[in-house]
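Whiteboard transcription, Tuesday session. T.W. wrote the C-alpha coordinates on the left side:
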Protein backbone atom coordinates (compact mmCIF):
# COMPACT_ATOMS: atom_id res chain seq x y z
CA UNK A 1 0.00 0.00 0.00
CA UNK A 2 1.15 3.55 -0.68
CA UNK A 3 -0.93 5.13 2.04
CA UNK A 4 -1.00 4.93 5.83
CA UNK A 5 -4.35 3.23 6.43
CA UNK A 6 -5.09 5.45 9.46
CA UNK A 7 -4.63 8.67 7.53
CA UNK A 8 -6.58 8.48 4.29
CA UNK A 9 -6.34 11.27 1.74
CA UNK A 10 -9.11 12.97 -0.18
CA UNK A 11 -10.19 11.22 -3.39
CA UNK A 12 -12.31 12.57 -6.24
CA UNK A 13 -14.57 9.97 -7.84
CA UNK A 14 -16.27 10.55 -11.20
CA UNK A 15 -19.19 8.43 -12.38
CA UNK A 16 -20.20 7.93 -8.75
CA UNK A 17 -23.94 7.70 -9.45
CA UNK A 18 -23.53 4.97 -12.08
CA UNK A 19 -23.45 1.22 -11.54
CA UNK A 20 -19.69 0.80 -11.06
CA UNK A 21 -19.33 4.17 -9.35
CA UNK A 22 -21.98 3.28 -6.77
CA UNK A 23 -20.09 0.14 -5.73
CA UNK A 24 -16.83 2.10 -5.66
CA UNK A 25 -18.21 5.00 -3.61
CA UNK A 26 -19.59 2.71 -0.92
CA UNK A 27 -16.34 0.73 -0.71
CA UNK A 28 -14.18 3.85 -0.45
CA UNK A 29 -16.30 5.20 2.41
CA UNK A 30 -16.25 1.81 4.15
CA UNK A 31 -12.45 1.83 3.94
CA UNK A 32 -12.26 5.26 5.54
CA UNK A 33 -11.43 7.42 2.55
CA UNK A 34 -12.52 11.02 2.44
CA UNK A 35 -14.55 11.05 -0.73
CA UNK A 36 -15.65 13.82 -3.05
CA UNK A 37 -17.99 12.89 -5.91
CA UNK A 38 -18.34 14.79 -9.17
CA UNK A 39 -22.06 15.06 -9.93
CA UNK A 40 -24.26 16.97 -12.36
CA UNK A 41 -27.30 19.06 -11.44
CA UNK A 42 -29.51 16.30 -12.82
CA UNK A 43 -27.71 13.43 -11.04
CA UNK A 44 -29.68 11.13 -8.76
CA UNK A 45 -27.51 11.11 -5.65
CA UNK A 46 -29.85 8.96 -3.56
CA UNK A 47 -27.57 5.89 -3.81
CA UNK A 48 -24.45 7.71 -2.61
CA UNK A 49 -23.24 7.29 0.98
CA UNK A 50 -24.28 10.24 3.13
CA UNK A 51 -20.64 10.84 4.12
CA UNK A 52 -19.50 11.96 0.67
CA UNK A 53 -18.79 15.52 -0.34
CA UNK A 54 -20.44 16.64 -3.59
CA UNK A 55 -18.78 18.70 -6.31
CA UNK A 56 -21.15 19.88 -9.02
CA UNK A 57 -19.63 19.81 -12.48
CA UNK A 58 -19.29 18.11 -15.84
CA UNK A 59 -16.42 16.48 -17.70
CA UNK A 60 -16.78 19.02 -20.53
CA UNK A 61 -16.72 21.99 -18.12
CA UNK A 62 -13.04 22.42 -17.31
CA UNK A 63 -13.56 25.13 -14.68
CA UNK A 64 -15.85 22.84 -12.70
CA UNK A 65 -13.18 20.12 -12.77
CA UNK A 66 -10.56 22.57 -11.51
CA UNK A 67 -12.76 23.26 -8.50
CA UNK A 68 -13.55 19.59 -7.97
CA UNK A 69 -9.91 18.41 -7.75
CA UNK A 70 -8.70 21.08 -5.31
CA UNK A 71 -6.93 19.45 -2.38
CA UNK A 72 -7.32 15.91 -3.73
CA UNK A 73 -4.61 13.29 -3.30
CA UNK A 74 -6.08 11.07 -6.01
CA UNK A 75 -8.65 10.88 -8.78
CA UNK A 76 -10.58 7.74 -9.72
CA UNK A 77 -12.07 8.47 -13.12
CA UNK A 78 -14.92 5.99 -13.53
CA UNK A 79 -17.33 8.30 -15.36
CA UNK A 80 -17.96 7.91 -19.06
CA UNK A 81 -20.53 7.34 -21.80
CA UNK A 82 -21.73 3.79 -22.49
CA UNK A 83 -24.79 4.61 -24.58
CA UNK A 84 -25.20 7.78 -26.62
CA UNK A 85 -27.67 9.32 -29.05
CA UNK A 86 -24.95 10.27 -31.55
CA UNK A 87 -21.63 8.48 -32.15
CA UNK A 88 -19.63 11.69 -31.69
CA UNK A 89 -20.81 11.85 -28.07
CA UNK A 90 -18.63 8.84 -27.24
CA UNK A 91 -15.50 10.84 -28.05
CA UNK A 92 -16.81 14.00 -26.42
CA UNK A 93 -17.16 12.25 -23.06
CA UNK A 94 -14.73 9.32 -23.13
CA UNK A 95 -11.88 11.09 -24.91
CA UNK A 96 -12.27 14.85 -24.43
CA UNK A 97 -13.85 14.57 -20.97
CA UNK A 98 -11.02 12.31 -19.83
CA UNK A 99 -8.44 14.72 -21.26
CA UNK A 100 -10.06 17.55 -19.29
CA UNK A 101 -10.08 15.50 -16.10
CA UNK A 102 -6.44 14.46 -16.31
CA UNK A 103 -5.35 18.02 -17.16
CA UNK A 104 -7.22 19.45 -14.18
CA UNK A 105 -5.77 16.77 -11.91
CA UNK A 106 -2.18 17.34 -13.08
CA UNK A 107 -2.43 21.11 -12.73
CA UNK A 108 -3.86 20.73 -9.21
CA UNK A 109 -0.93 18.60 -8.09
CA UNK A 110 -2.93 15.39 -7.71
CA UNK A 111 -0.59 12.54 -6.78
CA UNK A 112 -2.41 9.57 -8.31
CA UNK A 113 -4.84 9.15 -11.21
CA UNK A 114 -6.70 5.94 -12.09
CA UNK A 115 -8.75 5.55 -15.25
CA UNK A 116 -11.44 2.87 -15.37
CA UNK A 117 -11.36 2.03 -19.07
CA UNK A 118 -12.81 -1.12 -20.67
CA UNK A 119 -11.80 -4.41 -22.27
CA UNK A 120 -13.55 -2.96 -25.32
CA UNK A 121 -10.58 -0.59 -25.73
CA UNK A 122 -8.28 -3.58 -26.21
CA UNK A 123 -10.54 -5.52 -28.52
CA UNK A 124 -11.39 -9.23 -28.82
CA UNK A 125 -9.10 -12.15 -28.19
CA UNK A 126 -8.37 -15.48 -29.86
CA UNK A 127 -10.07 -18.64 -28.52
CA UNK A 128 -7.72 -20.30 -26.06
CA UNK A 129 -5.50 -17.23 -25.78
CA UNK A 130 -6.43 -14.50 -23.31
CA UNK A 131 -5.59 -10.99 -24.49
CA UNK A 132 -2.61 -9.40 -22.73
CA UNK A 133 -2.26 -5.75 -21.76
CA UNK A 134 0.71 -5.13 -24.09
CA UNK A 135 -0.94 -6.42 -27.29
CA UNK A 136 -1.80 -3.88 -29.98
CA UNK A 137 -5.35 -2.65 -29.24
CA UNK A 138 -8.00 -3.54 -31.84
CA UNK A 139 -11.34 -2.09 -30.67
CA UNK A 140 -14.30 -3.08 -32.85
CA UNK A 141 -17.01 -0.68 -31.60
CA UNK A 142 -17.34 3.09 -31.46
CA UNK A 143 -17.48 2.80 -27.69
CA UNK A 144 -14.26 0.78 -27.56
CA UNK A 145 -12.47 3.22 -29.86
CA UNK A 146 -13.49 6.15 -27.64
CA UNK A 147 -12.28 4.37 -24.50
CA UNK A 148 -8.92 3.72 -26.18
CA UNK A 149 -8.77 7.42 -27.06
CA UNK A 150 -9.41 8.16 -23.38
CA UNK A 151 -6.47 5.96 -22.42
CA UNK A 152 -4.28 7.89 -24.86
CA UNK A 153 -5.46 11.15 -23.27
CA UNK A 154 -4.27 9.90 -19.88
CA UNK A 155 -0.89 8.71 -21.16
CA UNK A 156 -0.24 11.97 -23.02
CA UNK A 157 -1.66 14.32 -20.43
CA UNK A 158 -0.50 12.87 -17.11
CA UNK A 159 3.08 14.09 -17.33
CA UNK A 160 4.90 13.03 -14.16
CA UNK A 161 1.62 12.37 -12.28
CA UNK A 162 1.38 8.71 -11.26
CA UNK A 163 -1.35 7.02 -13.28
CA UNK A 164 -2.71 3.60 -14.16
CA UNK A 165 -5.45 2.18 -16.37
CA UNK A 166 -7.80 -0.67 -15.44
CA UNK A 167 -9.68 -2.45 -18.23
CA UNK A 168 -12.63 -4.41 -16.84
CA UNK A 169 -14.57 -6.89 -19.00
CA UNK A 170 -18.37 -7.26 -18.73
CA UNK A 171 -19.54 -6.26 -15.27
CA UNK A 172 -22.65 -7.47 -13.44
CA UNK A 173 -24.14 -7.16 -9.96
CA UNK A 174 -26.59 -5.08 -7.89
CA UNK A 175 -27.54 -1.73 -9.49
CA UNK A 176 -26.68 -3.04 -12.99
CA UNK A 177 -29.42 -2.77 -15.62
CA UNK A 178 -27.62 -4.42 -18.57
CA UNK A 179 -27.74 -7.92 -17.06
CA UNK A 180 -31.18 -7.08 -15.66
CA UNK A 181 -32.47 -7.18 -19.24
CA UNK A 182 -30.94 -10.64 -19.68
CA UNK A 183 -32.58 -11.84 -16.46
CA UNK A 184 -35.96 -10.42 -17.55
CA UNK A 185 -35.79 -12.36 -20.82
CA UNK A 186 -35.04 -15.61 -18.99
CA UNK A 187 -37.89 -14.91 -16.58
CA UNK A 188 -40.18 -14.58 -19.58
CA UNK A 189 -38.98 -18.00 -20.74
CA UNK A 190 -36.45 -17.10 -23.44
CA UNK A 191 -32.68 -17.39 -23.85
CA UNK A 192 -31.10 -15.56 -26.76
CA UNK A 193 -27.89 -16.61 -28.47
CA UNK A 194 -26.03 -15.79 -31.65
CA UNK A 195 -25.00 -18.95 -33.47
CA UNK A 196 -23.94 -21.63 -31.00
CA UNK A 197 -23.34 -18.99 -28.30
CA UNK A 198 -20.07 -20.58 -27.23
CA UNK A 199 -17.90 -17.49 -27.54
CA UNK A 200 -15.69 -17.45 -24.40
CA UNK A 201 -15.64 -14.20 -22.45
CA UNK A 202 -14.37 -12.67 -19.21
CA UNK A 203 -16.60 -11.12 -16.55
CA UNK A 204 -16.41 -9.59 -13.07
CA UNK A 205 -18.83 -8.73 -10.27
CA UNK A 206 -19.32 -4.99 -9.59
CA UNK A 207 -18.18 -5.31 -5.97
CA UNK A 208 -15.00 -7.08 -7.08
CA UNK A 209 -14.33 -4.42 -9.69
CA UNK A 210 -14.68 -1.73 -7.02
CA UNK A 211 -12.12 -3.58 -4.90
CA UNK A 212 -9.84 -3.86 -7.93
CA UNK A 213 -10.04 -0.11 -8.59
CA UNK A 214 -9.16 0.73 -5.00
CA UNK A 215 -6.29 -1.75 -5.00
CA UNK A 216 -5.16 -0.32 -8.33
CA UNK A 217 -4.82 3.26 -7.12
CA UNK A 218 -3.12 2.05 -3.93
CA UNK A 219 -0.70 -0.26 -5.75
CA UNK A 220 2.99 -0.05 -4.93
CA UNK A 221 3.78 -0.20 -8.63
CA UNK A 222 5.46 2.09 -11.20
CA UNK A 223 3.33 4.62 -13.02
CA UNK A 224 1.80 3.77 -16.39
CA UNK A 225 0.47 0.26 -15.76
CA UNK A 226 -2.41 -1.12 -17.82
CA UNK A 227 -4.32 -3.91 -16.11
CA UNK A 228 -7.17 -6.27 -16.92
CA UNK A 229 -9.23 -7.54 -13.99
CA UNK A 230 -11.64 -10.50 -14.07
CA UNK A 231 -13.16 -13.21 -11.86
CA UNK A 232 -10.32 -15.49 -12.93
CA UNK A 233 -12.23 -17.77 -15.31
CA UNK A 234 -13.54 -17.83 -18.87
CA UNK A 235 -17.28 -18.20 -19.39
CA UNK A 236 -19.87 -18.79 -22.13
CA UNK A 237 -23.45 -17.68 -22.77
CA UNK A 238 -24.91 -21.19 -22.15
CA UNK A 239 -23.16 -21.28 -18.77
CA UNK A 240 -24.48 -17.92 -17.62
CA UNK A 241 -27.99 -18.69 -18.89
CA UNK A 242 -28.06 -21.93 -16.92
CA UNK A 243 -27.04 -20.09 -13.75
CA UNK A 244 -29.75 -17.45 -14.25
CA UNK A 245 -32.33 -20.21 -14.82
CA UNK A 246 -31.30 -21.88 -11.57
CA UNK A 247 -31.39 -18.59 -9.67
CA UNK A 248 -34.87 -17.84 -11.00
CA UNK A 249 -36.03 -21.47 -10.71
CA UNK A 250 -37.22 -21.07 -14.26
CA UNK A 251 -36.58 -23.09 -17.43
CA UNK A 252 -36.26 -21.06 -20.61
CA UNK A 253 -36.00 -22.12 -24.24
CA UNK A 254 -33.30 -21.06 -26.64
CA UNK A 255 -33.90 -18.56 -29.41
CA UNK A 256 -30.98 -19.08 -31.76
CA UNK A 257 -30.21 -16.30 -34.22
CA UNK A 258 -28.24 -17.35 -37.31
CA UNK A 259 -25.33 -14.97 -37.83
CA UNK A 260 -26.55 -13.97 -41.31
CA UNK A 261 -29.88 -12.86 -39.81
CA UNK A 262 -28.44 -11.06 -36.79
CA UNK A 263 -28.36 -7.46 -38.15
CA UNK A 264 -32.09 -7.54 -38.97
CA UNK A 265 -32.95 -9.11 -35.60
CA UNK A 266 -30.79 -6.58 -33.73
CA UNK A 267 -32.64 -3.73 -35.40
CA UNK A 268 -35.97 -5.27 -34.40
CA UNK A 269 -34.86 -5.76 -30.78
CA UNK A 270 -33.68 -2.15 -30.64
CA UNK A 271 -37.14 -0.97 -31.72
CA UNK A 272 -38.92 -3.25 -29.22
CA UNK A 273 -36.65 -2.07 -26.41
CA UNK A 274 -37.32 1.55 -27.30
CA UNK A 275 -41.08 0.97 -27.12
CA UNK A 276 -40.93 -1.01 -23.85
CA UNK A 277 -38.38 1.20 -22.11
CA UNK A 278 -35.97 -1.74 -21.60
CA UNK A 279 -32.35 -1.72 -22.70
CA UNK A 280 -31.81 -3.60 -25.96
CA UNK A 281 -30.50 -7.10 -25.27
CA UNK A 282 -28.96 -7.12 -28.75
CA UNK A 283 -28.08 -3.89 -30.58
CA UNK A 284 -26.26 -3.43 -33.86
CA UNK A 285 -23.16 -2.10 -32.07
CA UNK A 286 -23.33 -4.96 -29.54
CA UNK A 287 -23.51 -7.34 -32.48
CA UNK A 288 -20.00 -6.28 -33.47
CA UNK A 289 -18.80 -7.62 -30.12
CA UNK A 290 -20.87 -10.82 -30.10
CA UNK A 291 -19.70 -11.80 -33.58
CA UNK A 292 -16.08 -11.96 -32.43
CA UNK A 293 -14.41 -15.32 -31.69
CA UNK A 294 -13.58 -14.56 -28.03
CA UNK A 295 -13.47 -11.81 -25.37
CA UNK A 296 -11.10 -13.12 -22.72
CA UNK A 297 -8.27 -11.25 -21.03
CA UNK A 298 -5.31 -12.05 -18.81
CA UNK A 299 -5.51 -10.51 -15.33
CA UNK A 300 -2.49 -12.30 -13.85
CA UNK A 301 -0.27 -9.16 -13.96
CA UNK A 302 -2.88 -7.27 -11.89
CA UNK A 303 -3.16 -10.07 -9.36
CA UNK A 304 0.61 -10.22 -9.04
CA UNK A 305 0.93 -6.44 -8.60
CA UNK A 306 -1.88 -6.00 -6.08
CA UNK A 307 -2.67 -9.36 -4.49
CA UNK A 308 -6.23 -9.17 -5.80
CA UNK A 309 -8.44 -12.23 -5.27
CA UNK A 310 -12.10 -12.18 -6.31
CA UNK A 311 -14.88 -12.52 -3.72
CA UNK A 312 -17.51 -13.72 -6.20
CA UNK A 313 -17.47 -16.62 -8.62
CA UNK A 314 -20.09 -16.38 -11.35
CA UNK A 315 -22.61 -18.71 -9.69
CA UNK A 316 -22.57 -17.01 -6.28
CA UNK A 317 -22.44 -13.56 -7.83
CA UNK A 318 -25.37 -14.14 -10.18
CA UNK A 319 -27.50 -15.72 -7.44
CA UNK A 320 -26.81 -12.67 -5.26
CA UNK A 321 -27.62 -10.31 -8.13
CA UNK A 322 -30.94 -12.01 -8.96
CA UNK A 323 -31.92 -11.93 -5.25
CA UNK A 324 -31.12 -8.21 -5.20
CA UNK A 325 -33.23 -7.59 -8.31
CA UNK A 326 -36.15 -9.32 -6.58
CA UNK A 327 -35.67 -7.38 -3.33
CA UNK A 328 -35.68 -4.10 -5.23
CA UNK A 329 -38.79 -5.06 -7.19
CA UNK A 330 -36.88 -4.85 -10.48
CA UNK A 331 -38.14 -8.31 -11.49
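and on the right, the sequence the group agreed on:
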Amino acid sequence: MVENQTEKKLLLLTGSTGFIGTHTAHLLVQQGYRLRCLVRKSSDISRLPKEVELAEGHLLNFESLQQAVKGCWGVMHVGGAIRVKQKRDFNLINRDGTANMVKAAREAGVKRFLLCSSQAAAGPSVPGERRNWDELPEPVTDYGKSKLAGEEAVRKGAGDMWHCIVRPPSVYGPWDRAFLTLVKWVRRGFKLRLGDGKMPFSIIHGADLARALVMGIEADHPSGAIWFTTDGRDHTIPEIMEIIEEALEKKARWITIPEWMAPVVARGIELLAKMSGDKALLSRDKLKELSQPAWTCNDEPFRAATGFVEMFNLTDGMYQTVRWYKQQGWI
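Someone added at the bottom: The CA atoms of residues 177 and 199 lie 22 Å apart.
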